[in-house]
């Protein structure tokens, strides 16, 4: 069987940008199908480009409803006397999605798929209207004032668009199915000790049949409730720094079949509950599954919200002991008090295809080209701050800069255009101010913002700070500290004392990040990880402001969401890095995972590893469609989503999990080899999946068989499934719950065919085997592909026993990496010690970097090399070939350089005349699999 990379034509993507996680919610519009004109730009100078790389004006629509809308037959116009001016072709707008239409006058769909209207916008003031297919009913209008539109300043809706998840719907929880009334109502109070309760994540519940909730549930209470109880108590906590900064508080609950909710001990909501509920109450009526999946939105009185820690206590109610399912999922959301109602205004930063985070009705002076010099000053340097300030509609009256050192008090100083404040020539529109040398010490930050007012009283600010939770409040820099050096990239964190404990919690806290001369303000940092969250040294997920994304040193350009991983339990620090490194070298899409020195408030904080996070940003970097379906932690890949890692759908949240359920059913062993073979070849990107499995088994990845297998489907493209490498820290011999390194224990997880139904860890959860691994390994053709690819990779990277030391690729990489992290690794252990008492991780105390790297090489890599090249070789006569734990896997000998692949049929002129149906057939006539990775097709076709 031939291992052939999939040849596919890359689809062009138009500017119908779909955003599901950050919908622009505009309540009470009551528009047909909830489609609105949300923004337009009538003077596009070098901004968003169309398929011709021109920059015409544009109009943005958004579907604010919960159902897809086909816009065919709808109209756009800029003249209310001509409502049918331009008509949409067939174009479906998904829930929450944006569509950008270029107002170029071309009246076409361009080569990139973008729509163009038959009219152009007027920069002297515009009205844009969306008209229903009847050509009479105006569904939505957006009216700009009758004055000239400024270049690259759009006009759009803003305000209540900003929504804040105060308590996320997948947040941690404590749950208890009570056995008696001994606690009374003490459990609803904030100070109650719930340490002995079940820990998990929302949603909580169970599902027997049908499988409506199975893929949602992260905390399964079925064994505690089925036939035993109709009540489950759930407690969750969240922090609010300043309740007055938020308004429109809401409790959102999905439930089957009822609930009673208390917030900080006060009753706030009930559904299908008895008038006087007791500790073991049942719901008063059934709540149908299709309705239970739609969250009830219940207003909360602001008076019950406290500064600091708040506690939500919910008694979930099932309708009967014999009920086949139960679901409880709660969230608390609010909006910034300053957001106001939905209003139309100027957006000094246009946001085509994204939510509008703010706008102003009266535009003040334009603040542009701001900068500070030096970029990174020394203690002896003054800091010169300048900006070009021009009038928008009225003359500039004053310009000031407001600055602060660290988290101290703000100081305001005038900025002048007089030629004596670092502003250059007088009267040129550039204003300057000088912050004296010595204002801040080495390692301290200086942050600032600029304010300008005009003669009409309109005020502008830079940075705009339109969203308290998603935009920067300050610009800034950090005073250089020449005493701190590193071979690693150095990222400096600044966290105020009040936020320090928050960043180590699930709800997170705010801080500042400084790297390579750029300061990022108002950054969210929150703990990352489940079992490792209890360790002294923590990993953190990091979310940068929408208006200033992180320019990092890794691949893929700026990113908004990333993470700094602690790798606390690994004395070598290298295992997860090596897994992703090998995956990348093998040609897989894998997270970057690079060492970094973290400073906090001027002091050493951590040796960490910078890694991107699962989601749409990462998919885009991989060259995958972010509109595909991404499923995290699919466990053993069965329809109910059983997983020790917490099964979760991460994208395409506007639809259910039917595609995953169908795929899991397609892998079922009961289908037989022939049907599973067909399903694999029809539904799976086999080169990608086999490549992943080869890497995972070489490094002895321990957690993907029943927890961390993460799946992606190119839903709108080839519709094939792939595996995305994720959470590979338990690898290279590190075992969950063990203090020893394992490399050759085939009865555990060392067999290269581990994960199939005949090669399992005895006593593991969910039958201990993975249905995806099982299908690939049980089907003879795909098993041979896997073994051949495994041999290619071990030849190239692990290399046979006896290879001269100076030629070992893997060991050279380890040596280079060890040298680069040497200083920080010792500082890290001096600060944080070793992971004692924070879960079943770690090999013990006093294992320094030298000990850890030595164990990695001599206790795993050396014996693993022998294990794969000799023990499991097809030529090992001491073992019987087979799929079981104690069989040899049958890894083939090195591929002959003379292996031949033949050309078969060539279809260059299909009857359909569709270029996508052209193909070249390659035939492997050998009696062994051939790995054609990195081979090329040349001649009439270059591939």
Number of domains: 5
Number of helices: 13
Spatial ordering of strands, largest sheet? 35-36-37-38-39-41-40
Shape: globular
Radius of gyration using CA atoms only: 30 Å
Oligomer status: single chain
Largest sheet: 7 strands, mixed, barrel
Span between termini: 20 Å
Overall structural class, as computed from helix and strand content, comes to alpha+beta
Overall mean pLDDT stands at 89
* Low-confidence regions: 1-33
Helix content: 10-25%
Structure summary, number of beta strands:
48
How much strand? 25-35%
Structural features, described:
With 943 residues, the protein is an alpha+beta fold. It folds into 5 domains: 127 residues, Lamin Tail domain (Immunoglobulin-like), CATH 2.60.40.1260; 175 residues, Galactose-binding domain-like (Jelly Rolls, Sandwich), CATH 2.60.120.260; 117 residues, Immunoglobulins (Immunoglobulin-like, Sandwich); 103 residues, no CATH class; 248 residues. Helix content is 15%, strand content 28%. It has 13 helices and 48 strands. The strands form 12 sheets. It has a 7-stranded mixed beta barrel. Strands 14, 17, 18, 20, 23 and 25 form a 6-stranded mixed sheet that branches. Strand 5 and strand 6 form a beta hairpin. Helix 8 crosses helix 11 and helix 10 packs across helix 11. The longest helix has 24 residues. It is globular and about 90 Å long. 45% of the residues are buried.
């Amino acid at each position: 069987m031939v291992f052939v990379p999939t040849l596919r034509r890359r689809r062009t993507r138009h500017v119908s940008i779909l955003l599901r996680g950050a919908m622009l919610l505009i309540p009470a519009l009551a528009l047909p199908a909830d489609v609105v004109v949300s923004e337009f730009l009538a003077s596009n100078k070098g901004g968003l480009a169309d398929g011709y790389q021109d920059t015409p004006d544009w109009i943005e629509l958004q579907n604010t409803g919960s159902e897809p809308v086909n816009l065919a037959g709808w109209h756009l116009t800029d003249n209310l006397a001509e409502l049918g001016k331009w008509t949409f072709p067939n174009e479906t707008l998904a829930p929450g999605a944006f569509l950008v239409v270029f107002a170029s006058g071309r009246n076409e769909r361009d080569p990139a798929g973008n729509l163009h209207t038959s009219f152009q916008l007027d920069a002297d003031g515009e009205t844009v209207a969306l008209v229903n297919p009847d050509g009479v009913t105006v569904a939505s209008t957006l009216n700009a004032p009758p004055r000239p539109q400024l270049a690259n300043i759009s006009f759009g809706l803003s305000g209540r668009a900003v929504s804040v998840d105060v308590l996320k719907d997948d947040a941690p929880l404590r749950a208890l199915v009570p056995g008696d009334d001994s606690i009374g109502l003490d459990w609803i109070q904030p100070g109650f000790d719930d340490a002995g309760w079940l820990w998990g994540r929302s949603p909580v519940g169970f599902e027997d049949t049908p499988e409506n909730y199975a893929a949602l549930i992260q905390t399964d209470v079925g064994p505690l409730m089925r036939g035993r109880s109709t009540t489950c108590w759930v407690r969750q906590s969240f922090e609010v720094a300043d309740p007055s900064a938020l308004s429109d508080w809401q409790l959102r609950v999905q439930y089957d079949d009822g609930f009673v909710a208390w917030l900080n001990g006060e009753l706030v909501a009930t559904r299908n509950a008895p008038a006087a509920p007791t500790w073991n109450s049942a719901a008063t009526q059934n709540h149908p599954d299709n309705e239970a999946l739609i969250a009830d939105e219940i207003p909360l009185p602001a008076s019950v919200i406290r500064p600091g820690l708040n506690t939500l206590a919910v008694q979930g109610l099932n309708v009967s002991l014999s009920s086949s399912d139960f679901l409880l999922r709660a969230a608390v959301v609010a909006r910034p008090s300053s957001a106001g109602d939905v209003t139309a205004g100027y957006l000094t930063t246009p946001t085509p295809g994204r939510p509008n985070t703010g706008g102003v009705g009266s535009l003040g002076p334009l603040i542009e080209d701001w900068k500070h010099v030096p970029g990174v000053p020394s203690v002896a340097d003054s800091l010169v701050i300048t900006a070009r300030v021009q009038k928008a509609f009225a003359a500039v009256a004053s310009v000031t800069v407001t600055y602060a050192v660290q988290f101290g008090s703000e100081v305001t100083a005038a900025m002048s255009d007089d030629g004596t404040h670092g502003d250059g020539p007088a009267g040129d529109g550039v204003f300057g101010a000088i912050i004296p040398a010595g204002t801040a010490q080495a390692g301290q930050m200086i942050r600032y913002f600029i304010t300008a007012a005009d003669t009409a009283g309109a005020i502008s600010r830079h940075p705009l700070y339109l969203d308290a939770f998603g935009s920067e409040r300050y610009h800034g820099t950090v005073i250089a500290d020449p005493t701190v050096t590193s071979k690693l990239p150095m990222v400096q964190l600044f966290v105020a004392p009040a936020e320090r404990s928050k960043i180590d919690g699930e709800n997170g806290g705010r801080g500042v990040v400084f790297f390579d001369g750029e300061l990022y303000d108002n950054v969210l940092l929150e703990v990352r990880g489940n079992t490792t969250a209890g360790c002294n040294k923590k990993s953190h997920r990091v979310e940068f402001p929408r208006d200033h994304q992180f320019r990092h040193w890794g691949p893929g350009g700026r990113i908004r969401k990333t993470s700094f991983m602690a790798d606390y339990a690994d004395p070598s620090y290298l295992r997860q890095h090596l897994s992703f490194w090998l995956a990348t070298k093998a040609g897989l899409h894998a997270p970057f995972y690079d060492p970094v020195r973290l400073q906090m408030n001027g002091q050493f904080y951590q040796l960490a590893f910078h890694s991107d996070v699962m989601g749409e940003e990462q998919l885009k970097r991989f060259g995958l469609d972010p509109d595909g379906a991404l499923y995290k932690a699919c466990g053993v890949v069965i329809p109910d989503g059983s997983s020790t890692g917490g099964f979760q759908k991460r994208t395409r949240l506007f639809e259910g999990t039917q595609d995953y359920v169908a795929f899991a059913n397609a892998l079922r062993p009961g289908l037989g080899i022939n049907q599973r073979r067909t399903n694999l070849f029809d539904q799976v990107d086999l080169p990608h999946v086999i490549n992943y499995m080869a890497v995972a088994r070489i490094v002895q990845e321990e957690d993907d068989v029943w927890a961390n297998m993460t799946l992606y489907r190119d839903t709108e493209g080839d519709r094939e499934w792939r595996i995305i490498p994720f959470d590979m820290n338990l690898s290279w011999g590190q075992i969950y719950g063990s203090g020893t390194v394992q490399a050759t224990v085939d009865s555990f997880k060392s067999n290269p065919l581990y994960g199939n139904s005949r090669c399992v860890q005895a006593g593991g959860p969910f039958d201990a085997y993975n249905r995806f691994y099982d299908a690939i390994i049980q089907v003879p053709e795909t098993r041979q592909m896997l073994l051949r690819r495994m041999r290619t990779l071990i030849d190239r990277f692990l290399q046979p026993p006896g290879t001269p030391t100076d030629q070992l690729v893997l060991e050279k990489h380890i040596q280079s990496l060890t040298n680069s992290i040497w200083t920080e690794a010792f500082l890290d252990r001096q600060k944080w010690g070793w992971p004692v008492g924070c879960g079943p991780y770690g090999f013990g105390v006093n294992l320094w970097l030298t000990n850890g790297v030595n164990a990695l090489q001599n206790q795993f890599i050396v014996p693993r090399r022998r294990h794969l090249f000799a023990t499991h070789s097809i030529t090992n006569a001491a073992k019987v070939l087979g799929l079981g734990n104690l069989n040899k896997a049958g890894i083939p000998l090195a591929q002959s350089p003379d292996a031949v692949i033949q050309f078969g049929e060539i279809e260059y002129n299909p009857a359909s005349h569709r270029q996508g149906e052209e193909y070249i057939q390659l035939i492997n006539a050998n009696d062994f699999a051939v790995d054609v990775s990195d081979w090329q097709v040349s001649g009439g076709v270059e591939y």
